[in-house]
Design brief:
The protein is an alpha/beta fold. It has two domains: about 210 residues, Periplasmic binding protein-like II (D-Maltodextrin-Binding Protein, domain 2); about 180 residues, Periplasmic binding protein-like II (D-Maltodextrin-Binding Protein, domain 2). Helices cover about 35% and strands about 15% of the residues. The protein is built from 16 helices and 15 strands. The longest helix has 15 residues. It is globular, with a radius of gyration of 22 Å. Keywords: Signal, Transport. It comes from Alloscardovia venturai. This is Extracellular solute-binding protein. Belongs to the bacterial solute-binding protein 1 family.
Amino acid sequence: MTKFGFGKAAVAATASLAMLVGLAACGSNGAGSSNTVQLTVWAASEDQAKNSSWLQTEEKAFEKAHPEYKITWKNSVVSSADAATTVKQDPSAAADVYQFANDQLGTLVSAQAIGELSDDAKAQVAKQNDQTLVDSVTASDGKEYGVPLNANTWFMYYNKSKFSDEDIKSLDTMLTKGKVSFNLMNGWYLPAFYAGAGMTIFGEKGNDAKAGVKGGDHAAEVTKYLVNLAKNPNFVKDNDEGAGLAALKNGTADVFFSGTWNAEDAKKALGDNYAAAQLPSFTTQSGTYQMKSFAGSTAVAYNPSSKSPKIAAQFAAFLGSTQSQKDHYTIRGVVPADKELKSLIADNPAAVAQMNTIANTSILQSTLPEMTNFWDPAKNFGTALMNGGITEANAQAKTEAWIAQANKASK
């Protein structure tokens, strides 16, 4: 869902990097014990384009870091969004190394089509990432699979001529000073209010299917808050057709919630007043709560069915390394997941906002298959909020019915 630009960069691979990404104790490699191998790698077409050949750049860097290997590369176009569908058809015939969207993790584990990280790779992941992204590659069995390459979440674009640095900490303050658009009818955005006030979705880490969806003690009062938000004259209705972005462009909105895929459009819309930030707080009758958006990652994995699992695992970790993510940003503009690269993106408001959101105002989007059944009940509830079907008077009953429906759908 993300769109990126491209640039130009060179790679410097170091011996310490080679040590960091090494895979320990794969056991006997069988056919994979030879250092002369062919590795099949799947990646998006944009990663392999002639004018932005990030993948080939990293393959050459890996060869330089590992002169003991003689590798023939076989690259094919399979996007991270399509990885699970393609891999699970026949794991033994799938790529040795591939990228996947982390919400596919449960499917890949069930298909035995994704390899567990070594201790060295887990140490790399822990060093590079905030806990949300570590959790994004942790399956329900508690084991880690995949190295985060880039993050996926949403945050706030705003007109900095209307709001001070202090103003943007509070949604309620912003609503007194400008027009705020938000997509309450989308199940990916709506839960931010409830998550901030105590809702849990498949447990605290999103990996416990039996825990289900729990609204918490303040869910009904959050609903009442949203009923009034929808009626606020400074609230601008957004929808999946892009009404919020259109409002930002024509000046009828000063705030727009989205992700890095809309950075260029938001920048054009706001011009010199372009700014972005992590999510604000909001205040209900019982207190102030922090909005929290869903977050996930695109990660790099290796196939345990590979004929060369040790080398495949090493290359997967290499593709997710700090240097490789730096190259990905400078070559293609892909915002890194690696928190150690914050200085690299310091002049990019959207990238900084995304990284701050991951660190401070996000929760993990569950990787469980049951999560697919959460979206429609949330969308229907948000639509009812916007259409006036939910009021302060029926907020308690409607909220309980929504949560019950989400749990029923997930069973």
